[in-house]
C-alpha cells in the first residue's frame, strides 16, 4: 500500500521507517530539495536521524501534490505552527475517502486550537471520522532504531483510529486505540511545558525530589486544563498523559528538557532555539497554554512559571521559590481522578 508521510524531520522520517518495515511504499514529503536528494540518493537523513539508514521503500518528494496523488492514507508530521498552512494546501488534493493521521504535539499559538481543529478548519473536505491523532512516549531516535515503543491513536470514530492501528502496528511498535481525541492531543502537547521546567530544575541542580514534584504536579495541571476543555480525566493516566510526560521529562532525546537545561546555563531563549537547530514545541505550547488557562479560568502555576522564565526573563531560581512559597493547599487526588469535584476551577492548586 502507498502511504504519504508529510514532514521529513526526525518524527516523520521515523514513522516512515515503521510503515516501510510493515511493507508499505512510503511517499515522504520534504520541504528542502537537498534533503529529498539525500534521502533518495544516500538513504540517510543525517540532520534529523544521524546514523540511520532509510529503507529502500521510502521515496522522498518535494511536490506536495505529487506526494499525496493516488494515496488514501496520509500522515501529517510537521511542526505545529505550520500545520494550518500544510492542511490548507492539502484541501482539494486528498483522494476521496482518504484517512489522515496527525502526529503533531502542539497547540496553534495564534488561535489556541488543537491540531485536529486546525486541520479540519483548513481542510473542510476531510470528514472528522477519517481523522485521527497519534501520541504517546515515542522519541523518534528510538523508533528509528526499532526499539520497543508503544503509542496510542485516538479517532473521532473507531474506524478512523483502527485503520492506523492496522497500518502501524508491529512487534516493535505497539499501537492502542482511544476515543478521547481532546485528551490525547492535549496530553501530548502540554507535557512539553513540564519537560522544559524539569530541564531547568535539573540544570540548576535541584535534584530528584524536585523533578518528581514537577512531573506529578505538572500532570495535575495538564489534567485540570484538559478536563475543562472537554477531555476525560483518566486519559491523562495513560500513554498520552503520564507515559509521554515521563519520557519527555527524563530522556536525553527530549528537546524540551534540553532547552530547559540550556536556559539554566544562562543562555537566552534565542540562543537556545538557534543552538537546537530543530523546533522546540514546548516553547510555543507554553504561550498557548497560559492564554488558554486564563480564558478557561484554570490555574497552571508551573506553566506560568515556565512562561515567566521563557518570555519575561524571570530568574529560574526565583521562579522555583515562588512556586514553593504559594499558599498551602490540600491534594485532592482521589476526587480529582474520579471526577467528584469540578477541580479544574481550583481545589487542588
From TrEMBL:
Subcellular localization: Cytoplasm
Keywords of the record: Cytoplasm, Lipid biosynthesis, Lipid metabolism, NAD, NADP, Nucleotide-binding, Oxidoreductase, Phospholipid biosynthesis, Phospholipid metabolism
InterPro entries, per database record: 6-PGluconate_DH-like_C_sf, 6PGD_dom2, G3P_DH_NAD-dep, G3P_DH_NAD-dep_C, G3P_DH_NAD-dep_N, NAD(P)-bd_dom_sf
Keyword match NADP: yes
Active site per the UniProt annotation: 191
Cited PROSITE patterns: NAD_G3PDH
Amino-acid positions noted as binding NADPH in the UniProt annotation, renumbered to this chain: 10-11, 31-32, 48, 105, 140, 255, 279, 281
Protein name: Glycerol-3-phosphate dehydrogenase [NAD(P)+]
Designated gene of the protein: gpsA
Amino acid at each position: 500500500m502507498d502511504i504519504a508521510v508529510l514532514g521529513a524531520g526526525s518524527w516523520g522520517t521515523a514513522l516512515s521507517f515503521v510503515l516501510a518495515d510493515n511493507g508499505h511504499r512510503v511517499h515522504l514529503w520534504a520541504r528542502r530539495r537537498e534533503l529529498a536528494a539525500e534521502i533518495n540518493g544516500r538513504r540517510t537523513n543525517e540532520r534529523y536521524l544521524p546514523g540511520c539508514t532509510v529503507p529502500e521503500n521510502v521515496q522522498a518528494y518535494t511536490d506536495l501534490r505529487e506526494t499525496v496523488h493516488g494515496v488514501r492514507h496520509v500522515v501529517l508530521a510537521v511542526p505545529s505552527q505550520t500545520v494550518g498552512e500544510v492542511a490548507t494546501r492539502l484541501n482539494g488534493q486528498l483522494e476521496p475517502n482518504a484517512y489522515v493521521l496527525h502526529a503533531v504535539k502542539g497547540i496553534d499559538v495564534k488561535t489556541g486550537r488543537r491540531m485536529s481543529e486546525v486541520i479540519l478548519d483548513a481542510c473542510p473536505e476531510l470528514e472528522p471520522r477519517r481523522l485521527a491523532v497519534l501520541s504517546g512516549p515515542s522519541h523518534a531516535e528510538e523508533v528509528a532504531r526499532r526499539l520497543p515503543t508503544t503509542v496510542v491513536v485516538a479517532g473521532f470514530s473507531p474506524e478512523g483510529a483502527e485503520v492506523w492501528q492496522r497500518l502501524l502496528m508491529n512487534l516493535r511498535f505497539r499501537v492502542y486505540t482511544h476515543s478521547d481525541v481532546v485528551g490525547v492531543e492535549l496530553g501530548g502537547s502540554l507535557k512539553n511545558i513540564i519537560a522544559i521546567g524539569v530541564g531547568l530544575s535539573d540544570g540548576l541542580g535541584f535534584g530528584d525530589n524536585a523533578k518528581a514534584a514537577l512531573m506529578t504536579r505538572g500532570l495535575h495541571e495538564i489534567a485540570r486544563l484538559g478536563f475543562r476543555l472537554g477531555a476525560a480525566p483518566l486519559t491523562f493516566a495513560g500513554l498520552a498523559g503520564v507515559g509521554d510526560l515521563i519520557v519527555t521529562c527524563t530522556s536525553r532525546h527530549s528537546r524540551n528538557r534540553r532547552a530547559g537545561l540550556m536556559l539554566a546555563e544562562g543562555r537566552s531563549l534565542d540562543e537556545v532555539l538557534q543552538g537546537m537547530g530543530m523546533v522546540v514545541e514546548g516553547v510555543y505550547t507554553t504561550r498557548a497554554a497560559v492564554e488558554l488557562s486564563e480564558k478557561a479560568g484554570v490555574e497552571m502555576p508551573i506553566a506560568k512559571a515556565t512562561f515567566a522564565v521563557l518570555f519575561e526573563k524571570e530568574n529560574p531560581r526565583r521562579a522555583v521559590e515562588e512556586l514553593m512559597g504559594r499558599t498551602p493547599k490540600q491534594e485532592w487526588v482521589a476526587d480529582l481522578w474520579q471526577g467528584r469535584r469540578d477541580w479544574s476551577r481550583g481545589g487542588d492548586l
